Amino acid sequence: IMTVLLTITIFLAFKSLENKLFIKNGIVVLLVSLFGSYLVFPNYFQFYQAYINKETKINRPFPNIGLTDKNKKDIVFDRDKIIVLDFWTTSCGVCFREFPLYNDLKLKYKGDDRIEFYSVNVPLKRDVFEKSVEMIEEYNYSFKNIYAVSEKEVSEELNIYAFPNIVIVKNDTIVYQGHPSYEKIVVIDNFKNIIKDLLNN
Q: Dihedral angle at the C-alpha atoms of 109, 78, 178, 3, nearest 10 degrees?
């Protein structure tokens, strides 16, 4: 689909050059190029995450990192379930904007006991644990909120350096890791489609 759209974009750009009016040509080429970029870039980003940069991330055991609930009780995942983890930090504005989308996805599978959704706060040096808990708990989302013990451990064991970052675990193995893609225009490893395929297989 992306190849076809890119071909059409290039064709329209060249066709616009047949017109002798420079300004009109420039505007048309700019608009067509922006449209093409809008469609292609998100998919290239997902392609990079899923295929070019996947060697160090997926198809490996999920590491034993420290995770607790708000009462600092250790978290143990159910190995028989698909576990979806949304890693975030208190300084990540994009994380907070995407929480409602993540919550909608959780609600979509509310009655399905084969899958569980968690948000995972990664502590920054300046964070106070109680404040981090308060920041996410006040929204009363339907997914479960848990907390990583160490930022260093998350970065070293999971190679996570940018947020939000989604990790999906099945049978104790990381089957997906990357930025969540909720947009319909993203057809390469769309986050929603990945979960749907995992549940169907």
A: -50
Query: Closest Cα partner for 82 from 193, 170, 143?
Result: 170
Q: DSSP code of 104?
A: H
Element (H, E) at 116: strand 115-121
Residues 3-24: tens digit of each pLDDT: 666 677 667 666 666 655 555 6
pLDDT for 116-169, tens place per residue? Answer: 999 999 999 999 999 999 999 999 999 999 999 999 999 999 989 889 999 999
Go through 27-62 and write b for each residue having 16 or more CB atoms within 10 A of its CB, e for each that does not: ebbeebeeebeebbebbebbbebbeeebeebbeeeb
The amino acid occupying position 187 is: V
Distance, CA of 4 to CA of 25 (rounded, Å): 23
* 9-65 confidence digits (pLDDT tens): 667 666 666 655 555 666 666 666 666 655 555 555 556 655 555 444 678 999 999
Helix %, strand %, coil % of the chain (to 5): 45, 20, 40
The number of residues making up the chain comes to: 201
